[in-house]
């Protein structure tokens, strides 16, 4: 392991020696070695973020460590050179295929990752349903729409949610973009979604509550996801639409989008059970946070290579 001195760290991070010492003494920098009165700091240590940047937000104690570490990696990334347009496009294209594959697979789509990539290029996969091809294309278009919303700084509204849903359900003209008119059940769930006449009012409240939400984005987005799925406002496509909205919220706040893996689906479902059976949202908040952290770290590694 390569180390730097307190002085070198203070120069690199643009903060005083005294502040670096304090951070070392408080255990805020991972991997620090104390030698007598001096400290050795790992060469690749991240600059701890200023606690003040989280100030003003309501952060429950249990999430503080995770959110601070996420925001430290994000701050470090923001200091690095920006990705070029070509690099960004490449990363987005790769993400798009994987996200489309995983999100659709969770809902029973039979296309493999490779087949999803081909279907998005317009290739028809032998012996796979047309519906699965259309779902891939619909999800791709919905994600690109989400990206355009972020670029144009369009705030979340019920209209935006219905638009996303319209793209997800592009092959279902009579259901797309409209709230359901019949009761639904979620397979294996503890929660019964509300009666249809309650959907508009609950959706309106869910969206309007965002305007006075003072939590960290990760918690806000995870809670929105839990509550949105609990309302299950559409007749179909709630899972896919909900994961797209989750990403819209993350990207609007400058975080990378996340891809709930098909392989992690049991853990993902268990997050809903914890919330609706035990009133504990933390598994979903932690799962979303860990996904964001992993993705940010992946970007950082890319820029270090
Ligand atoms: N216990 C639960 N309580 C609330 N929501 C849940 C629960 N378990 C899973 N979900 C959410 O519901 C989604 C699946 O719901 P459902 O099977 O009704 O799908 P859908 O409305 O047809 O939408 P899609 O086809 O995109 O899933 C999951 O992907 C998840 O987001």
From TrEMBL:
Site (described: Important for autoinhibition of adenylyltransferase activity): 107
Ranges for domain Fido: 156-290
Native species: Acididesulfobacillus acetoxydans
List of catalytic residues: 232
GO-annotated molecular function: ATP binding; DNA binding
Stated name of the protein: DNA binding domain, excisionase family
Entry binding sites for ATP: 236-243, 268-269
Keywords associated with the record: ATP-binding, Nucleotide-binding
NCBIfam families in the record: excise
UniProt-listed Pfam families: Fic (PF02661), HTH_17 (PF12728)
């Amino acid at each position: 392991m390569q180390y730097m001195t307190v002085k070198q760290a203070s120069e690199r991070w643009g903060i005083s020696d005294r502040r670096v010492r304090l951070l070392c003494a408080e255990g805020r920098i991972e991997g620090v070695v104390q030698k007598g009165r001096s400290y050795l700091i790992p060469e690749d240590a991240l600059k701890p973020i200023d606690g003040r940047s989280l100030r003003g937000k309501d952060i429950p104690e249990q999430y503080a460590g995770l959110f601070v570490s996420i925001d430290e990696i994000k701050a470090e990334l923001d200091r690095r050179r920006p990705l070029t347009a070509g690099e960004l496009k490449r990363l987005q294209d790769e993400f798009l295929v994987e996200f489309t594959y995983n999100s659709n697979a969770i809902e029973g789509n039979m296309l493999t990752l490779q087949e999803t990539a081909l279907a998005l290029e317009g290739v028809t996969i032998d012996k796979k349903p047309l519906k699965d091809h259309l779902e891939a294309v619909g999800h791709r278009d919905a994600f690109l729409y989400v990206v355009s919303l972020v670029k144009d700084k369009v705030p979340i509204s019920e209209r935006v949610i219905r638009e996303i849903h319209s793209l997800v359900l592009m092959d279902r003209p009579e259901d797309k973009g409209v709230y359901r008119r019949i009761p639904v059940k979620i397979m294996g769930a503890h929660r019964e979604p509300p009666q249809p006449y309650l959907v508009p009012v609950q959706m309106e409240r869910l969206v309007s509550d965002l305007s006075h939400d003072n939590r960290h984005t990760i918690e806000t987005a995870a809670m929105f996801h839990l509550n949105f799925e609990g309302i299950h406002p559409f007749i179909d496509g709630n899972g896919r639409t909900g994961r797209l909205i989750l990403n819209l919220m993350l990207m609007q706040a400058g975080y990378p989008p996340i891809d709930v893996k098909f392989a992690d689906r049991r853990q993902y479902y268990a997050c809903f059970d914890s919330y609706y059976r035990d009133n504990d949202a933390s598994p979903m908040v932690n799962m979303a946070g860990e996904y964001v952290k992993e993705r940010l770290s992946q970007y950082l590694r890319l820029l270090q290579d």
